[in-house]
Design goal:
Blueprint: H1 3-9, E1 22-24, E2 30-32, H2 33-47, E3 50-51, E4 58-59, E5 66-67, H3 69-88, E6 103-105, E7 110-112, H4 114-123, E8 128-129, E9 139-140, E10 145-151, E11 157-159, E12 173-174, H5 176-281, H6 285-289, H7 294-306, H8 320-345, E13 361-363, E14 369-372, E15 390-392, E16 401-408, E17 413-420, E18 438-444, E19 447-452, E20 455-458, E21 467-473, E22 478-483, E23 489-495, E24 502-509, E25 512-515
Antiparallel strand pairs: 1-2, 1-5, 3-4, 6-7, 6-8, 9-10, 10-11, 10-12, 13-14, 14-25, 15-24, 16-21, 16-25, 17-18, 17-24, 18-19, 19-20, 21-22, 22-23
Helix pairs in contact: 5-8
Length: 517
């Protein structure tokens, strides 16, 4: 059957269009699902029975309807062909019915569908292009041959007959292959440039992560500092308010004592006044003269009036000057403490002491990186130098808080921490964590452990980054280890009482360890 006849067989007899979700009735006739359901609904309302629109055979209900998957696939194929026809409008030259073309042959000047293209490619190897209605723009009008190259001076396209030796003698021409070579070279350069750009992007992203990690650390330290400031201010506030309350209590006691004394004096004066009034009110003058205590009363009263000692009344001074001096001194002390804390909270500048480095450890020129080496470095053996792959920092840490980060290579085995200068330098006991003078984390065989005095504590963490942050609070007796990821993850904290100055301690095998701060 021809394609056009097959196309007609795919039309629904109700809507006269290609089947959409075709349904087969018991009688074998096919319809679109929507069409047949709408027809059944209308006929049931009118006659009360379901029947086929074509042969009128009755059926019970929708259970006699079945989806025709084969017909559905065929319809979908024709619909896709119809869509492609609408897009290109170019059909196979050899097909009797309109079948969309997939390629156009420049030599044959024909367009072909998939089937005819396979037959064509078996016989010849011609230049094929996407379907097109005309090949004129791909051929030289004079020679009727395919354009094969271009002239350098004006970039115009020419055919084989136009090459030097033909009508274009004396002109420089470029072939598609040479143009491809140029494009390949440009592509190589662009690829290299893109790789460089990607590398720069990666470095910037890494730098951005470092900034974020550092900002998180600085925020944590600043928050801790503000808590410390608030605690000092609260202590100072308590001292000042307590001093004011004590001064108030002392002043009020002074007022109470003076009031009691004056009340006693007032009572004494009242008694004398009453006695004198009685004497003055007596009508017999001789009674006054005969009063046995008359002379004492007169003398005591005159003494009280003329020669009495002035009682000093408290002026109510609370000692504001002294209180505010305490406040000023306290604030000054807090500022001094804060300055010390700020200095201590900054990342410590840790540099390695090459005089302590074992002869299997290479120290970088900036004294920041320790690398393991198979070759003996031949340094002079001294009491300071470690026998194994270890090194200490040059500076002592004897007070305050200190922070620094350490980056490691991958893979690597290391021990990181702190130790006293008095730690042993020879034998197995000299390894950090094997003695009572050092505290460290150890990374070995993809396992993380905390070590002190030979005691090993296995930690559940798996380090996802190659950086470790170390925090020392000397006065609090704490050494803490963190992984500077997002968010920062606490790994372990040693708590003790330090009795000597400390040094940063590194032990490294099969790789390198670098102090970042």
């Amino acid at each position: 059957m021809a394609s056009s006849d097959l196309r007609e067989e795919l039309d629904c007899s109700i809507c006269l269009e290609i089947y959409k979700d075709p349904i087969t009735l018991r009688c074998g006739h096919n319809f679109c699902r929507i069409c047949i359901e709408d027809y059944i609904l209308r006929t049931q309302e009118r006659t009360g029975v379901c029947s086929c629109p074509e042969c009128r055979e009755e059926f019970q209900d929708r259970s006699d309807m079945r989806k025709n998957k084969t017909l559905y696939n065929i319809a979908q194929h024709f619909l896709s062909i119809a869509d492609q026809e609408e897009k290109t409008g170019i059909y196979c030259t050899f097909c009797d019915s309109p079948v969309p073309a997939v390629k156009t042959c420049l030599q044959c000047e024909t367009s072909m569908c998939d089937g005819h293209l396979r037959k064509h490619n078996k016989s010849v190897q011609h230049a094929l292009i996407p379907p097109t209605r005309s090949t004129r723009d791909r051929k030289r009008s004079i020679h009727k041959k395919i354009l094969a190259c271009s002239r350098t001076e004006d970039s115009s396209c020419i055919c084989e007959s136009c090459k030097p030796g033909g009508e274009q003698r004396g002109h420089q021409v470029e072939s598609p292959s040479s143009e491809k070579d140029k494009l390949k070279k440009i592509l190589e350069k662009l690829t290299a440039r893109r790789e460089e750009t990607e590398e720069k992007v990666q470095k910037l992203q890494e730098r951005r992560r470092e900034v974020q990690e550092k900002a998180a650390g600085v925020t944590e330290r600043a928050t801790s500092l503000f808590r410390e400031i608030r605690r000092h201010l609260e202590d100072l506030e308590k001292r000042v308010t307590t001093a004011i309350a004590n001064k108030e209590s002392q002043t009020l006691r002074s007022f109470s004592d003076l009031i009691r004394q004056l009340e006693v004096q007032k009572e004494k004066l009242s008694r004398k006044m009453n006695r004198i009034e009685e004497m003055c009110n007596n009508t017999d003058p001789m009674t006054i003269l005969q009063e046995p205590n008359r002379q004492d009363i007169l003398e005591d009263t005159l003494e009280d009036i003329e020669a009495r000692e002035e009682k000093q009344v408290h002026d109510g001074d609370l000692g504001e000057n002294q209180i505010f001096q305490t406040l000023t001194t306290g604030l000054s002390d807090i500022i001094s403490v804060v300055k010390q804390k700020i200095c201590a909270l900054r990342d410590s500048d840790i540099k390695l002491d090459i005089n302590t480095a074992g002869n299997r450890v290479v120290i970088s020129d900036d004294l920041k990186t320790a690398s393991w080496s198979e070759e003996n470095q031949g340094r002079t053996e001294t009491a300071e130098r470690f026998e194994y792959y270890q090194v200490l920092s040059a500076g002592k840490l004897s007070s305050g808080q200190h922070h620094w980060e350490v980056e490691t290579s991958d893979p690597v085995r290391w021990r990181l921490g702190l130790c006293y200068a008095s730690t042993s330098r020879k034998g197995g006991q000299s390894l950090f964590g094997n003695n009572a003078t050092s505290w460290c984390l150890r990374w070995c065989d993809n396992k993380l452990t905390a070590m002190y005095n030979g005691k090993v504590t296995h930690l559940p963490h798996r380090i996802s980054h190659r950086k470790i942050r170390i925090h020392l609070d000397y006065e609090a007796g704490q050494i803490s280890f963190f992984e500077p990821c997002d968010p920062i993850r606490h790994l372990h904290t040693f708590t003790t009482t330090f009795t000597e100055p400390l040094h940063a301690a590194l032990c490294v095998w099969t790789g390198w360890v670098r102090v970042l701060s």
